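[Q] Does anyone have a clean structure-token version of this?
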Amino acid sequence: MECSPNVLYQAWTKQFDSWFAAPGSVLMEAKVNTTFFFETHFEGKRHPHYGRFLRLEQNRLIELTWITGEGGTKGAETVLTVELKPRGNGTHLYLTHAGLPDENSRNQHEQAWPLVLEQLDKRMMPDR
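[A] Here you go.
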């Protein structure tokens, strides 16, 4: 990622509607065991996302539960871990999404996350 660990940490904990969520849909406070909610809109449909923060380490780690409906986690509580490691002027971001309910859900998320992360990097860079 071209963004710094600080920019990415803020994006995952305070600026979700700048790069992922539908504007105005985010209810989120970056505190461990605090729940959050947001929506994405895709192909004319609303996709609500719920979860809670499990671990937060400033500019280093975000771990949260991730629950979506049909076409996502199918209501299963999954765990998303985002590790941020400085790399030159940017960041090496490691994303792990564990506990997906079936192979189809795993395949969909495996295809979607790289696109989501590309969007994150583009949206958070100040000169883009």
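[Q] Thanks! Anything notable?
[A] Residues 56 and 62 are 5 Å apart (CA to CA).
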